[in-house]
Design goal:
single chain, alpha+beta, 3-stranded antiparallel sheet, about 15% strand
Length: about 300
Amino acid sequence: MTLAPTDSVTVSRRVLIDACRTLGLDTGGAEPIRIAENAIWRLPGKVVARISRPGGTPAASREITVANWLADKGVPAVRPAPGIAQPITIDGRAVTIWEELPPHRDGSVNEVAHLLKALHALPEPDFDLEPLEPFRKIRTRLDQAKAIKETDLEWLYRYTDSLEEAWLRLVETPGLSRCVLHGDAWVGNVASADDGTAYLLDLDSFTVGPREWDLTSTAVKLTSTSSITRHDYEDFCTVYGADVTTSDGYEVLRDIRELRMTAYAARITTEHPDHPHARDETQYRIECLMGGQGQRPWRWTAVP
């Protein structure tokens, strides 16, 4: 289970019990799978509960709609449990119930490429998806980051403003691609089952925008953090049919993705103030963005 403050587990368990009581579901033997951006619990009956942070009901509603749409289009993804009107909201947190996946591992970059190629080829759905807006979540996470130096935080806000200006110029580029996006496409959001089927997970970031956004999530693992090999990245490009690192605007997309990863680490540091790796990793990432740790690629490591 992903490291989480004890109070986070307690809160999500209470929400889980209240939601399942309302839905008529059994919570006996419920087990936490992951307590992070969302809280994921395994329930009896081969179903999984997903609990959002406060204010997550609109995103959860969109996630249910997207999952049903993907099922209609034949794209492998997590599926809502049938026969349940959802989401429901408990104490401001959205609760959704999903079919449990078969035994699986994290996906590979090859599997991410296959799923993105299928997703990006779909026509836009007949329900509304908001245009991609990368900065709302960044600013929210920076607002929550109380465990980093004030001067660093001020620099991060200025850097965010400058990147947003560059982003707005980029999206005005004539001929820029537009399609349905996963929004946070990386190997951790793909599950590969023992039968070889790869499933898309975490559908709450679905949006529309340039396909390059989804591709950048994997590209930065080579160009920014060295967490995949050149061979793996070339395989990703071959499967998908494009190399985003050669596209106009890649540097802007790369910088935004790096900033998002840093803002996430900063928020985790606030939630885990006694965890030395989270604190040290956040500071290292900030120094990288500031230019104090040499040229890319850097050696970023996962935070809890």
